[in-house]
């Protein structure tokens, strides 16, 4: 795969680790890792990459250096891109060398698939046991087969590198040609049957992880062909190169006879084409290919559980659906006891449980336990990243389950009998009402992981939703939940967990647009009053939780109009009130007038008194003057 990383500086080795030479060479670099330190040691014990780099330097000329790096890719890439291998040309490294990157996450992923392949009752469901392990030969371990697959993948990435550094005129899809170059080198230059074994194990891996069910349309536009197509191409190359050693592919029906008729010619053209392209760039002295190193001893595997019988087809669901997700990275120990979210599911009879593989490794959902083995109730077989498996539970009981290839992944499904409709109780004779029983304690919710906002956001349009008074049970009002997500949205969905006021939970699968936007509407009704909680999960990451309250609107009152209509009683009462008010007003006016009259009368009395006094004074003065005048007349 061609590599377009966010930052090449995260994986470019220090200058002291690799000295860039004038003549191009292949160099090996192990990027330090803490998480996969044990795996790094194990890979180094294979001595595989060391021997391949040595052989390539003796085989090919290079115009510049090519570094073969092994790294913990999740340390610099999104988790969904870490289970892979890449080639980065100089235009991306920004240096005078290009890189082939093999991710440790990919090695673990391929080991899981090969472990499933060699487990009795698992891989032999799809591929005959006589094909997986040929009679009369020692059956390779899962670790041996993992190295074989990495052998094919490494030379696939080398195909990208040689197309780039030699500027080869490849007219068709580069990914298809890279598969062809890997097959050419492994089948033409490997010692013994090593190359054929690598091609066959790579083919088994593609067959076990192939599925076109519910495949999004974007998958058909990918630069890689579908896994099932890659299986048939590799099977044809193997048969075309050595029909006698690969006749079992036809005998068991894995390779169609019509396709097989042309495989020898297909392989002949493959060899001719790549020999034409590569010969001018090969060293003049061609060394003997390095023998395939003997892998380190395989650790003693855990006891193989007894294969589960084929379960009886489930009935048509009549209840709800609950989705369970496994956390990314659950293919490595450390996620327990919550490798599945939720790890315990409680449902009713005929409800369906859907398991979604959010990890980047293949898993199984197998009823039973790691210690006792499968119990035969259900078994998904191996299903890859992004795929689903579902079971309808027609009977009540407790169902433990686990992953066969990762036994630390365990979960539980509790199935209860559906609650019957309540029967109305008869009316009792009058008696003192007993105290009502205390309501049951609500279930304790599982702890919610802290939101990882770098993966997305979640919002609610309002914190309170008022629903209409006496709204019908079939009606309802809705509230919008919306947000954005980061990363590749092709063929992906966001999952919401809705918790209602009564504690009931349900899982919603929400589509995401190409630009990363999502929205949905939650409809509520009058019998579900209280607080609702909605949490969102994107690619296994909790991106946040929102809450909103649902309340009843106040009971509607009679709406007044500009001219309200009143009853006769209301009209009479109003008239009486008005008349009383008028009488009080008139009485007040009368009192006011009377008061004014009294004031006027008082003023007139005072005026009259002053006039009388003046008149009396004037009379007295006149009488006095008269007496004086009389006195004067008498005296003369």
Automatic annotation (TrEMBL):
Residues 278-333, 418-455, 554-636 are annotated as: Disordered. Keywords: Copper, Metal-binding. Residues 323-333 have a biased composition (Polar residues). Residues 554-566 have a biased composition (Low complexity). InterPro entries: BlueCu_1, Cupredoxin, DUF4344, ET_Amicyanin. PANTHER family: BLL1555 PROTEIN (PTHR36507:SF1). This is Plastocyanin. It comes from uncultured marine thaumarchaeote KM3_56_C06.
């Amino acid at each position: 795969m061609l590599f377009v990383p966010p930052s090449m500086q995260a994986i470019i080795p220090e200058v002291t680790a690799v000295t860039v030479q004038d003549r191009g060479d292949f160099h090996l670099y192990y990027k330090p890792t803490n998480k996969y330190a044990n795996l790094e040691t194990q890979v180094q014990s294979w001595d595989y990459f060391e021997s391949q780099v040595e052989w390539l330097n003796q085989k090919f000329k290079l115009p510049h250096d090519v570094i073969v790096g092994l790294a913990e890719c999740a340390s610099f890439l999104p988790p969904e891109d870490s289970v892979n291998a890449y080639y980065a040309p100089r235009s991306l490294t920004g240096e005078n060398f290009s890189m082939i990157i093999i991710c440790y996450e990919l090695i673990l992923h391929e080991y899981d698939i090969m472990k499933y392949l060699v487990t009795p009752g698992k891989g032999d469901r799809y591929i005959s046991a006589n094909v997986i392990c040929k009679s009369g030969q020692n059956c390779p371990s899962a670790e041996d087969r993992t190295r074989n697959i990495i052998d094919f993948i490494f030379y696939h990435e080398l195909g990208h590198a040689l197309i780039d550094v030699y500027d080869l005129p490849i007219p068709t899809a580069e990914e298809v040609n890279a598969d062809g170059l890997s097959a050419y080198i492994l089948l033409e230059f490997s010692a013994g049957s090593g190359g054929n074994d690598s091609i066959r194990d790579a083919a088994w891996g593609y067959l076990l992880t192939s599925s076109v069910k519910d495949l999004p349309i974007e998958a058909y536009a990918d630069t890689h062909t579908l896994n099932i197509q890659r299986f048939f191409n590799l099977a044809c190359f193997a048969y075309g190169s050595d029909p006698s050693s690969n006749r079992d592919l036809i005998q068991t029906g894995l390779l169609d006879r019509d396709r097989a008729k042309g495989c020898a010619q297909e392989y002949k053209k493959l060899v001719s084409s790549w020999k034409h392209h590569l010969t001018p760039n090969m060293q003049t002295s061609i060394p003997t290919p390095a023998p395939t190193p003997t892998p380190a001893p395989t650790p003693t595997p855990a006891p193989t559980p007894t294969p589960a019988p084929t379960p009886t087809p489930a009935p048509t669901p009549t209840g709800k659906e609950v989705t369970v997700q496994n956390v990314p990275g659950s293919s490595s120990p450390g996620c327990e006891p919550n490798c599945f979210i939720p790890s315990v599911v409680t449902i009713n009879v005929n409800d369906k449980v859907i398991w979604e593989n959010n990890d980047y490794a293949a898993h199984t959902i197998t009823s039973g336990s790691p210690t006792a083995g499968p119990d035969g109730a259900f078994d998904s077989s191996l299903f890859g990243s992004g795929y689903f498996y579902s079971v309808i539970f027609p009977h009540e009981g407790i169902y433990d389950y686990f992953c066969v290839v990762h036994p630390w992944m365990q979960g539980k499904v509790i199935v209860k009998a559906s609650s019957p409709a309540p029967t109305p109780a008869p009316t009792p004779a009058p008696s003192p009402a007993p105290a009502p029983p205390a309501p049951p304690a609500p279930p304790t919710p599982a702890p919610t992981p802290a939101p990882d906002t770098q993966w997305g956001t979640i919002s609610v349009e309002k914190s309170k939703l008022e629903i209409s008074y006496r709204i019908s049970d079939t009606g309802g009002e809705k509230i919008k939940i919306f947000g954005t997500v980061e990363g590749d949205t092709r063929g992906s969905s966001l999952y919401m967990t809705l918790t209602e006021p009564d504690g009931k939970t349900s899982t919603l699968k929400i589509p995401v647009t190409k630009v990363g936007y999502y929205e949905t509407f939650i409809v509520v009704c009058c019998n579900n009053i209280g607080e609702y909680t909605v949490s969102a999960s994107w690619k296994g990451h909790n991106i946040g939780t929102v809450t909103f309250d649902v309340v009843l609107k106040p009971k509607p009152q009679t709406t007044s109009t500009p001219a309200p209509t009143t009853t006769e009683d209301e009209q009479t009462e109003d008239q009486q009130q008005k008349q009383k008010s008028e009488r009080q007003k008139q009485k007040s006016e009368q009192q006011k007038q009377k008061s004014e009259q009294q004031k006027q009368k008082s003023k007139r009395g005072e005026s009259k008194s002053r006039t009388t006094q003046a008149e009396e004074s004037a009379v007295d003065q006149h009488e006095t003057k008269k007496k004086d005048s009389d006195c004067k007349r008498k005296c003369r």
